[in-house]
Amino acid sequence: MNDLEAKIEKYVKTLRENDIRMTSQRYAILNNLASEDKHPTANEIYEDLKDEFPNMSVATVYNNLNFFMQAGIVKELPFGDGSSRFDLTDTQHYHVICNNCGKVVDFNYPGLAEVEKVVESITNFKVDGHSFKVTGLCEDCQKLNL
């Protein structure tokens, strides 16, 4: 079993533990999310899979993404560009987003893990999560001299 298959199998197990039956469409959506490093929109997932599943609609993709979010394996990433993107939740990580082409790249910075504890101690809030994004120009767009 390769890394991608192992990753998908871990998510399939979580879905089954949440009483979510695996269908071929759900498996294809999960595989799309796991194999692509692009943080797709629901519409992009639909476009990738519509030839394989001609009876699937964008609404079906959204419904399945909602099941995945309820099971805790997918996060919705509202980057403020008018369309939500979706990301598997296999690790705590952050995103850098190109202001020109919209490319999204994952990165991890361990120092940010302490943010929630610091905020709780300063504010007396019970923090249940945080988000952090960085914006700029990707290497390809920099080459275009934007």
Automatic annotation (TrEMBL):
Q: Looking at the keywords, is Transmembrane present?
A: no
Q: Where does Fe cation bind?
A: H130
Coiled coil (residue ranges): none
Q: In which compartments does the protein localize? A: Cytoplasm
Question: Which taxonomic lineage is given here?
Answer: Bacteria, Bacillati, Bacillota, Bacilli, Lactobacillales
Per UniProt, which keywords does this protein have?
Cytoplasm, DNA-binding, Iron, Manganese, Metal-binding, Repressor, Transcription, Transcription regulation, Zinc
Positions that bind Zn(2+): C98, C101, C138, C141
Instruction: Name the job this protein performs.
Output: Manganese-dependent repressor that controls a regulon of oxidative stress resistance and iron-storage proteins. May act as a hydrogen peroxide and organic hydroperoxide sensor.
For activity, the cofactor(s) needed are: Zn(2+); Mn(2+); Fe(2+)
Q: Which GO terms describe its biological process?
A: negative regulation of DNA-templated transcription; regulation of secondary metabolite biosynthetic process
For whether the record's keyword set contains Cytoplasm, the answer is yes
Cofactor: binding comment: Binds 1 zinc ion per subunit. Binds 1 Mn(2+) or Fe(2+) ion per subunit.
Pfam families, A to Z: FUR
Q: Which CDD domains match?
A: Fur_like
What GO molecular function annotations does the UniProt record carry, in alphabetical order? DNA-binding transcription factor activity; transcription cis-regulatory region binding; zinc ion binding
Instruction: State the family it belongs to.
Output: Belongs to the Fur family.
According to UniProt, the name of this protein is Fur family transcriptional regulator, peroxide stress response regulator
User: Where is it predominantly found?
Assistant: cytoplasm
* Any single GO CC term annotated in Swiss-Prot or TrEMBL for this entry: cytoplasm
**Which PANTHER family would you find in this protein's record?**
PEROXIDE-RESPONSIVE REPRESSOR PERR, ZINC UPTAKE REGULATION PROTEIN
